[in-house]
Amino acid sequence: MKRICTLLLIVGLCAFNSLKAQNVEEITIKQLLSRVNENTDTLYVVNFWATWCPPCVEELPIFAAPELNDSDRNVKVLLVSLDFKSQKEKQLLPFLEKKKIQQEVILLDERNPNDWIEQIEESWSGAIPATVVYHQNKKVFHEGEMTLPQLHELIRSINQ
Amino acid sequence: MQKVFLFAVLFIGVNIIQAQLKVGDIAPDFKLTNTDYQKVALSDYNDQEGVIVVFTCNHCPYAKFYEERINLLHKTYAPQKFPVVAINPNDSVKYATDGFSHMVKKGYKFPYLLDNEGVYKAYGATKTPHVFLLNNTGKGFEIAYIGAIDDSPQEASQVQVKYLEDAISSVKAGKAAQPAITKAIGCSIKPFQ
């Protein structure tokens, strides 16, 4: 009986884990841009970050703010990871699990930064973190770390 | 009079903050401490045809990806009078491995200078690695190229375009670099306050 219990417990834990684990999709800039520019009411908050970037990791908790993750309000956070594809399993996925990241994480599948940085924002030097807000074919951009009030200010500025 | 002075100071301050070097600008001079505790100045290179200035550091994975390639650049181009000068603009309070002793351990064959004077700001460097190719015109060092070393940070074996080396060839041929500016991902600079 004890054995069965242990077995059930293990199976249960496994099932629980697989439910929780993020399925991190690998997408290109073109795919990302077509998604955030869909003609919907959704406001996208897109943060470029990486597990190897300490200021990015420090900033991550602001994107978990409830008002940014409220589908009733048509707000959607996308955390675009610039981690290296070769380290997805070893580095990125364990990090997401450890930090219990609930927002959608996508892994950028691009080779040459010079090809895509300007497609996101002309003034972006390429330093991360960087955040872009998209809403109905408009966008606003911020390079560097932000606080939650600064992010709110950025979101407000898109409709001004 | 005091007011005018204050205004002048403020004005200069704002200008320094906004300084963003462009291709064709004269490169600001610097005099910073090298890993052998000697000072190295840009003007020490007046007898060279140009200088490859790389803002880089120890902790950043992108900087690490390029370490070998920067060594190779110096090996190839120093004899051609385009040596490398690396500058670390990060304060080790933020990243311990960017501290001076860690810079010494790298044992680079080219100067690796600690920028505790905000030289990065005068150049408009925002991240590591960030490259500035300087062309010695005889009247000063002119910025010939700003940006990335090549088009494949993560995989040296997959490089297709060597932006910096192409720019050096152009400068040697007396032509403008094409492209003269490229963008790359890097770690934002955490400077000395």
TrEMBL record, chain A:
InterPro entries tied to this protein: AhpC/TSA (IPR000866), Thioredoxin-like_sf (IPR036249), Thioredoxin_CS (IPR017937), Thioredoxin_domain (IPR013766), Thioredoxin_ResA/DsbE_sf (IPR050553)
Signal sequence extent: 1-21
Any single Pfam family the record assigns to this protein: AhpC-TSA
Top-level taxon of origin: Bacteria
Keyword annotations: Redox-active center, Signal
Location of the Thioredoxin domain: 7-160
Entry keyword annotation includes Transferase: no
Identification of the protein by name: TlpA family protein disulfide reductase
TrEMBL record, chain B:
Domain Thioredoxin positions: 21-169
Cited Pfam families: AhpC-TSA
Entry-linked PANTHER family: OS07G0260300 PROTEIN, THIOREDOXIN-DEPENDENT PEROXIREDOXIN
Protein name in the entry: Thioredoxin family protein
